[in-house]
TrEMBL record:
Residues 1-22 are annotated as: Disordered. Residues 68-102 form a coiled coil. The lineage of its organism: Eukaryota, Sar, Alveolata, Apicomplexa, Conoidasida. Its main location: nucleus. It is found in: Nucleus. This is Mediator of RNA polymerase II transcription subunit 21. It comes from Eimeria necatrix. GO terms for cellular component: mediator complex.
Length: 120
């Protein structure tokens, strides 16, 4: 149903003096109070249907949807874990360098043992 043009009156059919010569009829429509009430009721039913549909769709959203606080908490936890892993990685790199230097030293000593060769 189209929105009302006017709240008052009924249907008017009149001929203007200018249009009577050409036999055109001007029709002005107005909704009765009952028609207006029906229009408002049908609109409110449509809104109610939309609200109901939205509520149903919200219920279908996945459980994985998290609040901003939960997401920020997880990010903080992951940042802490990342920092701990970075510290462990630095320790591992230092240990590997130490082992590599020890192997080089052992190889130099083994290669030059009993000789007068010096390797820097």
């Amino acid at each position: 149903m189209a929105p009302p043009r006017s709240v008052s009156g009924s249907v008017d059919v009149s001929e203007s003096s200018e249009t009577s010569a050409t036999s055109n009829v001007v029709i002005r429509t107005a909704m009765t109070e009952e028609q207006l009430n029906e229009f408002i009721l049908s609109c409110s039913k449509g809104v109610g249907t939309l609200v109901h549909t939205i509520e149903e769709e919200i219920e279908k959203l996945p459980e994985g949807v998290q609040s901003q606080d939960e997401i920020e908490s997880q990010i903080r936890y992951l940042e802490e874990e990342n920092e701990a892993a970075a510290a462990e990685l630095k320790q591992l790199v230092a240990a590997v360098r130490s082992v590599r230097e020890a192997l080089r030293t052992a190889y130099r000593e083994a290669a030059t043992d009993g000789t007068r060769i010096t390797i820097d």
